[in-house]
Amino acid sequence: MNKPFMPQLVYYEPRALEYPLGKELVQKFEKLGVEIRQTTSHNQVRNIPGENELQKYRNAKSTLVIGVRKTLKFDTSKPSAEYAIPLATGCMGHCHYCYLQTTLGSKPYIRTYVNLEDIFEQANKYMEERAPDITRFEAACTSDIVGIDHLTHSLKKTIEFIGQSEYGRLRFVTKFHYVDHLLDAKHNKKTRFRFSVNAPYVIKHFEHGTSSLDQRLEAAAKVAKAGYPLGFIIAPIYIHEGWEEGYLEMFQKLSAALPAEALNDLTFELIQHRFTKPAKRVIEKNYPKTKLEMDEEKRRYKWGRYGIGKYIYEKDEEEQLKEILHRYIENYFPQAKIEYFT
Ligand code: SF4
User: What is the pLDDT of residue 226?
Assistant: First the structure.
């Protein structure tokens, strides 16, 4: 992805104009000459152009809805944070394995919420309830927020809001390298900036429409120099031919790219590939030619919430993945903290 995201079509909810960010965004897209339509509610967003479902899906991923977040109860976000802070939903990327395909279902367009004042007020309540314990907020549960933030700056405002708080911490993860506007944010080291990284094979075959590994690593180096605590999420860890060398190559690149500033406070989160039966059906529909291996016979079934179990790697494969990736991290980044393997 060599150009920052720009929607082809924009919708706005009338109530969005009651908020400064809503007004600003509508004016911005009018000036840019992007087609913009009013809608009574995002559920009314119909007529996404396209001759068939697949085209509509693709076009929806370049449609932006400027809306108001009505539900202010935040979802929980284990294991990496207490709450998901809702800034946006949807993503312009085309990662075949992305779980948003199932969670957003028929609404894959991107929504950005402009009532930041309400969202921050709610976040303050959660922090007060837990004080003096720290409250961690995850900003990338339902979107790749960095990928759209050059347009909205709502993430930047959230970084500064949490930066001023006493008991708040913020984290998010991205596969995009458009970070320049975030470098001067007053983060006060309370935001952990994470990049999602993977072996070259996985990026090449399954992460279309995202930034390359080199671009992500260049951005990670900038972020570390700007004083942010840095992290990497390796997900999905995926077994493919030559995976051991693939992940080794990835660590070699990481090690060459990261400046000294990154090393004092560096974290890794490791998530093996998994899929559910409903997800498999959606993936095969949206990406009919995918090479993503989703053979239930080769996997171990793990019971999940709401009765929907997931298929993860067999125990011996899981142990091997864990052992090798841990070894690479210990070799290349002995000071880093491995937060979890799941
Ligand atoms: Fe999904 Fe992240 Fe890929 Fe976007 S970048 S499609 S949120 S996995």
Answer: 98
